Fold this sequence. Notes:
By secondary structure, this protein is mostly helical. The chain is 62% helix and 0% strand.
Amino acid sequence: MTRYLPIALLAAAALWWFATLPSPAPTPGPAPAPVPAGELSLVGLATGDTAATDLTTIGTLAEEVAEAIAWDGTQVAPKFTTGAQFDALRVAAREWRCRGASVGKRQPNVAKAIGDYLTKKLGTSGGPVDAAARAAWVAALREVGRACREAVQ
């Protein structure tokens, strides 16, 4: 039994030596996929001292209105059933939040880009909306919110 003691000690020493070796540097994995750009970009369009605040206000309002429209659509008898009503809700929410001040006047390039985008995605009919049209409104307003966050960053 004592003749195996040196071999056991050598094996233990070898194990200890291997265990204390520094780990090799991890092999870098593939770079994360870039976040795909959205359909709307507002980067560089807002100007002045209030640019970030204005974009945050616009984006937050757009997302809140999107959520209200989406929630309303889950009700047995939705209160908002036309594009004109959706737009009136959006305008009223903006007026209430901004107390009548016009962010669009301070940020005309942003207002034009958002207006063009909403017209392109939603049209101008203002008529009755079905589930698909409601979903398009929600998606478009969420995209405005996303674009505003992107522009602030």
